[in-house]
Amino acid sequence: MSRHNMSGMDAASKLLMANEAMAKDAINFILQDSNYSVVEGSMQMRNAEAIAKLPGLRNLYKKISNDVVWELEVTDGGPPVAILAAFENQSYPSRIMPVRGLLSTTIRVLAWRQETEDEHKARRDFTSEEERLDGVREGDRPTPVLPATVYFGQEAWPGKARLHGMLELPEGLRSHFADCPSNLLSFRDMDSKQLSRLPIGAFRCVAICIRYAEDPTALRRAWDTDPSFQLVDTMPEAALDVISIATGFDLRKTNQEDNNMKKKMSTCEKFFREEGEAIGEARGRAEGRDKTVLEFIQGKREYHVPDIQIREELLKFFKLDEATAQRYMEAGLAKA
């Protein structure tokens, strides 16, 4: 991805993850194996840069600035748990994301400690010298931080998923050392089962388009069959921008062309129904019919639709017999 595209992707992906529905889908996907999910109506976006205003944390924050931070609750059916989800959006691979996740967690816990100390000092409610030195009282708890990395690129991710994976530590020692996951969400590495587990909607469209960016046939098949693509007209602009920058696939244009093709198919079907293929039709009508069907075949092939699928659509929509459909398919190849 070029430097220009990286800049555009950084801006678009930040807007994407600032969308509540997009962030919710990402969090639910990350937590799916835990049986926890986001509590409806609990999400509130935090000012990701507010932490930099706290004395002592400005310089540290410069080394790790989260793109988007959400405050929310999750539940497995029991009492809700309050968490912070700190998103890092990546357009290129990074080998140190677990370290950045650890820093993200650390500075937010430090910020909590400082804010909590300031509140207690203002209320003058420390009950012991130990509490005053710690800056917190018994029962004070920081909000757990969920570091999350959303990767929009096409290069293989070279880094490790957890901090322990970056360290040369024997298995027997690992429990004694701090660990941190990056909670990597890499679209390019998702398989069809994982894609199908994403909720129908814009986030799933982004995932599918990036996953199949280098496989036009699979991408077109998804466009024709996955219900998420039926929602293009209502998708956030940021989702469409991310797809366009990451893959070069313009869903706005494709959707318009597809609608035009559907209108043409409807016109063709009406033509065949009304005019038929009766022998003895006027030559002009036959030529008009041929031109329309050949344009239909050519348009499908431009989107890498397999010939077997095109033939099925000729039979279904235009009510052709096998021999006539085959004749048009061969004529279409000769024309191409």
SSE map:
Elements: H1 3-17, H2 20-30, E1 37-38, E2 44-46, H3 58-63, E3 68-75, E4 81-90, H4 97-123, H5 129-134, E5 145-151, E6 184-186, H6 192-197, H7 202-211, H8 216-225, H9 237-247, H10 251-275, H11 283-302, H12 307-317, H13 322-335
Parallel strand pairs: 4-5, 5-6
Antiparallel strand pairs: 1-3, 2-3, 3-4
Helix pairs in contact: 1-9, 7-9, 10-11, 11-13, 12-13
Description:
The protein has two domains: 3-249, no CATH class; 254-335, no CATH class. It is 51% helix and 10% strand. The chain has helices spanning 3-17, 20-30, 58-63, 97-123, 129-134, 192-197, 202-211, 216-225, 237-247, 251-275, 283-302, 307-317, 322-335; strands at residues 37-38, 44-46, 68-75, 81-90, 145-151, 184-186. Strands 1, 2, 3, 4, 5 and 6 form a six-stranded mixed sheet that branches. The relative contact order is 0.10.
What general form does the structure show?
A: elongated
Give the ordered list of helices and strands: HHEEHEEHHEEHHHHHHHH
> What count of helical segments does DSSP give?
13
Give the strand content. Answer: 5-15%
Helix content: 40-55%
Query: Structural class given helices, strands, pairing?
Result: alpha/beta
**Cα radius of gyration in angstroms:** 27 Å
> Uncertain runs with pLDDT below 50, 5 residues or more?
275-284
Count the beta strands.
6
- End-to-end distance, in Å? 32 Å
Number of domain modules: 2
What value does the average pLDDT take?
A: 82
Q: How many strands, what sense, and barrel or not for the largest sheet?
A: 6 strands, mixed
Give a brief description.
The protein is an alpha/beta fold and 336 residues long. The protein has helices at 3-17, 20-30, 58-63, 97-123, 129-134, 192-197, 202-211, 216-225, 237-247, 251-275, 283-302, 307-317, 322-335; strands spanning 37-38, 44-46, 68-75, 81-90, 145-151, 184-186.
